[in-house]
Amino acid sequence: MQLEHAFSVDAPIDDVWNALIDPERVTGCMPGASLTGVDGDSFTGQIKVKIGPVALVYKGTGTFVEKDESAHRAVIEGNAKESRGQGTAKASVTMTLKDEGDQTTGTVVTDLAITGKPAQFGRGMLSDVGGKIIDQFSSCLSKKLGEPAPAAQPAATPPSGGQPAESEGAGAAAATTPVQPSTEPHAEAEALDLMQYAGGSVAKRAAPLVGALVLGAIVFILVRRLRS
Length: 228
Prior knowledge:
The protein is an alpha+beta fold. It has helices at about 15-20, 25, 120-145, 170-175, 195-200, 200-225, and strands at about 1-10, 35-40, 40-50, 55-70, 75-80, 90-100, 105-115, 190-195. It has a domain at about 1-145 and about 190-200: Alpha-D-Glucose-1,6-Bisphosphate, Chain A, domain 4, CATH 3.30.530.20. Helix content is about 35%, strand content about 35%. A hairpin with a 5-residue loop joins strand 5 (about 75-80) and strand 6. It holds the Pfam family COXG. InterPro entries: CO_DH_gsu (IPR010419), START-like_dom_sf (IPR023393). It comes from Gordonia aquimaris.
């Protein structure tokens, strides 16, 4: 199925572009998503999803197969599989940005194929949910890009006359020592509650089922009372 959504971010187009092609900067704005690794244009991660009392975890990979900076267009292809089930998700996502001065507008076209429990929602409901998620994502990104850059650290104070200065060799060695990458794990996100995002549309679909369950429970109680 194909889903189309639009969004806007209160930031210049170059800032938005540089953020969108950097998974480590934007993953925190995507509900339910956690990043587990980045290798060039490829990345790995997981997304937690709740459907009522049922919790699902999808683990997968994504790759930027196209990055056109002049057109501000990027294409990502991803695959994911349910960690404790047979559900799968495969998507090709095309993002295109447009310069609107101090604001950037964009479109997201997603070719999506899913199996398992989320497939029961259908195209219309998934489009509604996707729109709300992208609205939340763009609001979060606007806030992030609007935050001031961290202040630069002040230069080290040279030693006083009474203290021995660091040797030139030691200083040169310290200056050339490579910075090791962080080994801290990425924080896990809270699960994306599809029922919360779907709102009334899910309630309408679920109403007949809930009614049937309530009726069944009443019949069961009455039968037990008659037997006793």
